[in-house]
Every structure is written in C-alpha cells, then in structure tokens.
Write a structure and sequence with these properties.
Length: 416
C-alpha cells in the first residue's frame, strides 16, 4: 500500500503556522490530483490546499486546528481504485435502536385555587391616575386585574395593561433574541492585532481635501470605448488616482518611506497596495513599480489582482510589501472616513463617493462631481507640510489630469 503523507506547505516567508479553515472533502473520499481539499488561513491570506496525488483521503486534522508548516494533515492511499460514481461510499452508519418510551409520570392532582379575597366597593375600581391612563388607551377597567388594596386598580396596573395594548410588554420582549458565537479566522485575528498596534504604536493623523472629478468624467466618457477596444480593459478611476499618487510620491519622498526603530527607510520605487474587497474580507495586493506603469498597465494589473482575490487565488507574495496604500470606501457609499495606515507603511489615501455638489468656480456657483479624499499618515516621520503638500499634489493630478498625468496630450497619454 502506497500512502502519501500530505504536509502543510509554507504559504510564504515568516509564516510558521496556519489554521484549517474548511475541509472541502470528507474522510474516506476519493480525491483527484490537484483537487482543492482544504482552505487554510494564515495571518496574511486564505489559501487552498490541493491534493498532491489521487486516492482515498484520511484526514488527520479537524477544522479550526492550528497546525505547523510541515505538519501532516492528511494521508492519501494512492493504490486505492476510484469507485464508480465518484466519491468512495461512506461507511453505513449503525442503525439506532428505538428509544424506549419514557415511563408515564403519575397523575398529579391539580393545585387547588387560592382563596378569593372578599370583594368590596374598591374591587375593580381604578384610582384617578389609573382611570386617566385606561381612558387614554381605550381599555375597559373590567379587563384589568387590580393589585391594590381590596383589589383596586392602581396606576402601575394601568400602565402594565397599556403596554400590551400598544403591541409590547414592559417586562418581556417579543421576537427572536438568539445569539451566535463564531471563532475569528487567523487572518481576521491578525488584522485585528495589526490595526490595534497601528493605533497604539504610530502617531497617526489625518488630513483632508476634495477633488473635482469633472475632467476624469470627461476623459472616460470620451475615450472609454476606444480605450477598451485597444487595450482590452476599462478606463477606471483607479488608474488616475494611482498615477496621481506616484507623481505625488516623487514630489514628497518622505511619504514613500517607513520607520524601523531609530531609522527611516526611503524607497526609490512606488509599490502601491490597492485595497480590494473579496469573499474572505479586505485584501491589499500590490502593484510593483507602479510609477513605471501606463494607464493600461495599471488597469490590467488591478483587474488581474481583483479576479485573483475574488476567486481566492491571490498569493501571499502578491500581497507582501507595498510602500503606500490606496483604499476606496466610496464603492460602499462612504462620504468621509479616516483610513488606518497599513503597516509598516507610513501613509494611506482614502477615496470616497462622488456627489454632485455646488461649488464656486471663477466667482460662479456651478454643479460639479466632487469627492472628499483623506490621507492618514505617521506623524513621526511625515510632517504636516509634507502631508498637506502631498494631498494637494494628488488634487492637482485629479483636477487637471491632462496637464499633470497625461503630459498635455490626452490620446498619447492614454496610448490611443
């Protein structure tokens, strides 16, 4: 019998353990070579574990187990023949015997009713305060049980009777009140730790500005079909913002830096992390050397990375590094927010939704598509002058893309 021990492969540098998030097969199933058999969570991504050979699988770890890289998590019997109809038949569960009928409990006598208190003129009569409440709610006093002296209906009795009349109860709630407890994934726990550490260990500050999207709207409307036909990708907003950011990073190099103890590390390249929402949460794949990319290159790479995130095919290497992050909360309707720095980076740009707003242009009030932008930065190495200047440079690129991003020639800048 040839048995293959499947061990946890290394998802990436510095990762020593993963969590078995989901088994995609059952114990005793027949699996094909390269068939995904499990999803494993690391502190950076959720990855699929493919079968290394075909055969009958025996699981050696449970869902939720944290296992070390190199640890055996399943066995594959490579000599086992593939059963007809697909997966191996599961062992027949033993029939359960019919549970014996519970012995009938002896009949108990019904409790005797408590003696009724002697009635008087006060029994069933509301007090003045109670009568006012009952009259306001349209409740007949005969429907209320008085708990006052000699059976008098008190104000409290009237208030309790009025609550059900309004569709509720002062002592009990209606509707479902269940709770669900779910263990956070390794990735989500790591994200939580990183976000808390950023708040505690950096001098984070946020500066704001607004950009006029009119020119970008015009360029996209005028050239989107020609751009798509020639390059095979759409002309979106992210390419304009990416190019505006790389230009601003060259003008303000301290924003394109990180801090390491008592040292500042400056980068002569712009690796831009793009926040992408996927089934497993927010991922930040990286555009390497984005400063050298054309509009086509930015759009094509973002599309490729977004598809990988959506399909769960993104690798740890594709999310490692990055010198600056762009996140777009506007896709979810956010008008304004303070994004949190993506460590060890020192700054992040937050985009928001686009709203038609009245603005003053050359002394006239006009309606323009406006967007608020926010830049959070680590004040330990980025001063206010650099942060504000950087965001103004981004604004220049967005407000006037032809001059600052396309070199003064629309068609040439877009490679049309």
């Amino acid at each position: 019998m040839s048995i293959l021990e499947m061990k946890v492969p290394s998802p990436g540098e510095s990762i020593t353990e993963v969590e078995i998030a989901t088994w995609l097969v059952k114990d005793g199933d027949y699996v094909e070579k390269d068939q995904p058999i499990a999803e494993v969570d690391s502190d950076k991504a959720t990855l699929e574990l493919p079968a290394e050979q075909s055969g009958i699988i025996t699981l050696k770890a449970e869902e939720g187990d944290v296992v070390q890289v190199g640890q055996v998590v399943c066995l594959i019997d490579m000599d086992a023949a593939k059963p007809e109809g697909g997966a191996a038949p599961a062992a027949e569960a033993p029939k359960q015997e019919e549970a014996p009928k519970a012995a009938e409990a002896p009949k108990q006598e019904a409790p005797k009713p408590a003696p009724v208190a002697a009635q008087s003129y006060a029994t069933g009569s509301p007090s003045p305060a109670a009568k006012k409440i009952l009259d306001e709610k349209g409740i007949d006093a005969s429907q209320v049980s008085g708990q006052g002296r000699d059976g008098r209906i008190t104000k409290t009795d009237a208030e309790l009777a009025a609550v059900p009349a309004m569709g509720g109860n002062s002592l009990t709630a209606t509707g479902t009140r269940s709770t669900t407890t779910t263990k956070l994934s390794v990735l989500r726990r790591k994200i939580a730790q990183r976000l808390v550490s950023v708040k505690n260990e950096t001098a984070m500050l946020t500066t704001f500005n607004e950009v006029d999207m009119s020119e970008i709207f015009r360029l996209r409307k005028q050239y989107k079909e020609e751009f798509a036909q020639k390059h095979g990708v759409g002309l979106g907003f992210m390419s304009f913002f990416t190019k505006a950011v790389t230009r601003a990073l060259k003008l303000y190099p301290d924003v394109n830096a990180s801090i390491d103890g008592d040292f500042k590390i400056n980068y002569d390249f712009c690796d831009i992390s793009i926040a992408v929402s996927g089934p497993k949460g927010l991922m930040v794949p990286v555009l390497r050397n984005a400063e050298n990319m054309s509009f086509k290159g930015v759009e094509a790479n973002i599309k490729d990375l977004a598809v990988k995130v959506r399909d769960g095919k993104i690798t740890v290497d594709e999310m490692t590094g990055g010198t600056f992050t762009i996140t777009n909360g506007g896709t979810f309707g956010s008008m304004l927010s303070t994004p949190i720095i993506n460590p060890p980076q020192s700054a992040i740009l937050g985009m928001h939704n686009i709203i038609q707003r009245p603005v003053a242009v050359d002394g006239q009030v006009v309606i323009r598509p406006m967007m608020y932008v926010a830049m959070s930065y680590d004040h330990r190495i980025i001063d206010g002058k650099e942060s504000v200047g950087f965001l103004v440079a981004v604004k220049e690129g967005i407000d006037n893309p032809v001059e600052f991003l396309l070199g003064g020639d629309e068609k040439k800048g877009l490679e049309l």
